[in-house]
Amino acid sequence: MISNQILVQEYEYDFAVDGGATGVITLSAKDNKSVMPTGAVRKATHVLVQTALVGASASAKVGTTASDADFAADAGVATYSLNAIFNDTTPVVVSATSDDCLLTISGGALTAGKLKIFVEYIVPTT
Fold first, then answer.
1. Cα separation, 96 vs 5, whole angstroms
2. Fewest C-beta atoms under 10 Å: which of 20, 37, 63, 97?
3. What's the predicted TM-score (pTM) here?
4. Is residue 2 part of a domain?
5. What pLDDT digit, counting tens, does each position of 42-73 carry?
6. Is residue 61 helix, strand or coil?
7. How far apart are alpha carbons 69 and 104 in whole angstroms?
């Protein structure tokens, strides 16, 4: 594992691939993705809307199991407009309950949308 460098883990939600049913999508469980390393220091998270989220009465939030709105708070899809960016710059030590990346859809299904989530972190030396 690389240490003493800022690393970036990228996750993606894409309606065309993931669908839009209400519930939780574990983005870190998708092919070629992984959870954050336990013990890492998460420096910042950035959520970029590449395609606006669409869905009657739908809302969305992005986070972890420990805090499901940690990266982007629960908001109606109008908030997730094209090129909107949500930032969380509160440092936190990654634990076994905060190592994943989740998208939670509620209120109604999504019918379109694409998000990129970038998580910056450092793996401390032992």
1. 21
2. 97
3. 0.90
4. no
5. 999 999 999 999 999 999 999 988 888 888 88
6. strand
7. 8
